[in-house]
What we know:
Blueprint: H1 9-19, H2 22-29, H3 36-43, E1 48-50, E2 65-67, E3 70-72, E4 76-78, H4 84-87, H5 91-102, E5 106-109, H6 116-122, E6 127-131, H7 137-149, E7 154-158, H8 168-173, H9 186-190, H10 193-201, H11 224-231, H12 238-248, E8 251-257, H13 260-268, E9 273-276, H14 290-301, E10 306-310, H15 316-324, E11 329-332, H16 334-366, E12 379-381
Helix pairs in contact: 1-16, 5-16, 13-14, 15-16
Amino acid sequence: MRLSDCHNVDxxxxxxxxxxxWPVFDYxxxxxxxxxxxxxxxxxxxxxxxxxxxxxxxxxxxTSIMLMGRESALPLMLSPTALQRVFHWQGxxxxxxxxxxxxxxxxxxxxxxxxIEDIGALVSSPKLFQLYVHKDKGLNASxxxxxxAAKFDALAxxxxxxxxxxxxxxxxxxxTTPPRYTAANLLGYAMKPRWGLDYVFREKFGLPNxxxxxxxxxxxxxxxxxxxxxxLDTSMDWDTAARIRQDxxxxxxxxxxxxxxxxxxxxxxxxxxxxISNHGGRQLDGSRAPFDQLAEIVDAVGGExxxxxDGGVRRGTHVLKALAQGATAASGGRLYLYAxxxxxxAGVERxxxxxxxxxxxxxRLMGVTxxxxxxxxxxxxx
Length: 382
């Protein structure tokens, strides 16, 4: 299978699976417990249907939106995800360049494998930093200040990782960062020599946003579950979120909001945006899908705060359904991580091009020329 054979996100998933060692692929692809929530994140979009109009004069359409104070050419955001240079040696740089080419928002994680400063200098397109609140308050302050100096456009505080979900695929494979080879997983790594050569001979792996504070993930192999359970601040509460918003002083987003009550609290502390998200089904299995919760949250705070529906997006129609339900934008991680793992920057550009084409074609088929014409009267529940 070649890159040119990839025509949708599932095709990129298959190519990524063919090219990655299985413990690395399972880290991307896996989720918590029975992975029921991960499956529901995409399936939820199938519970509503789009109602198109015809003869609408759609020769010219406008797919752009304003999101968190910056224009985005598409109503789609690339969610922040960790460890990207484990998946492909180009890592976050590939995602940043592809996002800039298509004029869309992207984010990097606290556990990014490229530094805040490198990404800030690399692209001028809209960029977000996703903050995990660590027990080390000096580390938190350092990352916020570095983002300010690097002119990041927004800070997203992740609020759904007080402890790690039970990611059973990673428990079986022994996946750590950097990779630790065991009897159970050694063959999986040995069978993908191209990945191994890139990992060993390209830029030395590290988590540069943690430099000077912790060694985990750089010199010391650690699982993500172990990292979350030992390094992150379990006492984080709404007062913490309000202080971080004040310390940052710029555009502020809460990532991981799933209830209307929490969305209301986000408005009350002055957040500019929320990402309705269950962390890709990687935390609380059996929780609701973001799209399932979207209408309830829009009814509670729509018009008072920007709302990003995060997770499960695989098609342009999923984006349009989220917008029609009242979201400002849609976002996802796996939708571009599979493409990154499959082919680096070329893969991310191809998947973005495919999704752009789908959004444009589907808007024409819906009989709409601008995003704000996608309203709830365009949807029907099954």
